[in-house]
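Q: I'm building a small set of examples for a reading group on sequence design. Run inverse folding on the following structure and report the sequence directly after it, with nothing in between.
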């Protein structure tokens, strides 16, 4: 009986140790710089003007930022980088992910699965402006993204290779948005909110629109 009780305790301790070691190993593999072409080896901490080549991981999304009566649109995308060049020099292999922000709205010609080339300013993400506020760098680090790329406009994007048509999920969402807009004279705030609730379309969820739902815990 004593051996049975002791074995049970050993199993519990061994299982807990295994869980901790598994988590530590997973964290190390996600954050360690293993490849000689890792973006962290190439770019370091200084901002630089670069052109990156890579695959679009998911359909670019738009966000609108409202300041008073003025709206500013930006397009967000995530790229799996395979090559990089500085100031129009020769291409070099690169490995890593980038969060790309482009001023304005990209056309629907860009979608997941494409190989694209984008020119912009590569830099480490911004840290929290004050303690307790949103830390964009920590958020992206958790996703395995260590650099952002700021592109001035759609003119800084170029498609290098592309599937014949967008993924089915992207085509369905576009169809669903058009279907929900049938009979609506204009694209207004109510229609955008309907898209957000029904399709998870977060483009127009500004702080002003989201705040009542946050306060109501919905």
């Amino acid at each position: 009986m004593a051996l049975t009780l002791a074995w049970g305790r050993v199993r519990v301790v061994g299982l807990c140790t295994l869980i901790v070691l598994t988590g530590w190993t997973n964290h190390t593999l996600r954050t360690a710089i293993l490849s000689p072409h890792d973006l962290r080896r190439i770019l370091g901490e200084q901002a630089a003007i670069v052109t990156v080549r890579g695959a679009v991981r998911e359909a670019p999304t738009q966000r609108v930022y409202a300041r008073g009566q003025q709206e500013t649109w930006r397009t967000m995308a995530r790229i799996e980088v395979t090559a990089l060049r500085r100031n129009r020099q020769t291409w070099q292999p690169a490995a890593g992910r980038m969060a790309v922000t482009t001023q304005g709205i990209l056309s629907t010609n860009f979608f997941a699965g494409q190989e694209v080339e984008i020119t912009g300013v590569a830099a480490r993400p911004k840290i929290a402006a004050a303690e307790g506020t949103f830390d964009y760098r920590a958020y992206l680090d958790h996703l395995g993204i260590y650099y952002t790329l700021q592109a001035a406009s759609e003119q800084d994007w170029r498609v290098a290779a592309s599937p014949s048509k967008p993924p089915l999920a992207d085509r369905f969402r576009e169809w669903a948005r058009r279907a929900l807009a049938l009979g609506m004279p204009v694209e207004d705030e109510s229609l955008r909110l309907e898209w957000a609730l029904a399709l998870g379309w977060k483009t127009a969820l500004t702080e002003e629109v989201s705040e009542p739902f946050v306060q109501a815990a919905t």
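The chain has three domains: 1-32, 39-165, 169-215.
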